[in-house]
Design brief:
Order of helices and strands: EEEEHH
Mean pLDDT: 93
Strand order of the largest sheet: 1-2-3-4
Strand content: 25-35%
Distance between the termini: 42 Å
Largest sheet: 4 strands, antiparallel
Helix content: 10-25%
């Protein structure tokens, strides 16, 4: 696949990347959009297991296909890593913070929870 990635952001936070029909969720906020901020605060959190969806056949993003397509997950992650140095400092810093915040494992589609110490 020689198409450029389409990236999904929430403010400075990179959350997803799309390559053709494939959309990889790599991080997610700890609460749904447009809801009250929790007492622990809002965090963009990495997904310990990135979620892969084929949005042509599953536009609701209901079936995580990452286990069946590890090569596509790896390709998208590699392309994102190659692109990151060209992003604004705010994006790079936000991504580092996302990657460095400890999280509990979560089910596909669920909101991740930070490990607060």
């Amino acid at each position: 696949m020689n198409r450029p990635l389409f990236l999904y952001f929430s403010n400075w936070d990179l959350q997803c990347a799309r390559l053709g029909a494939w959309k990889l969720h790599m991080s997610r906020g700890n609460v749904p959009a447009y809801t009250a901020e929790p007492k622990v605060g809002y965090f963009n959190l990495r997904l310990l297991s990135p979620e892969l969806y084929n949005i042509d056949t599953d536009p609701e993003e209901a079936e995580d296909l990452s286990a069946q397509n590890p090569d596509i997950v790896a390709e998208i992650q590699q392309r994102v890593a190659q692109m990151l140095p060209s992003f604004p400092t705010e994006v790079q810093t936000a991504w580092k913070n996302t990657q460095n915040t400890p999280v509990y494992p979560n089910e596909p589609g669920a909101y991740p929870t930070p490990i607060v110490r």
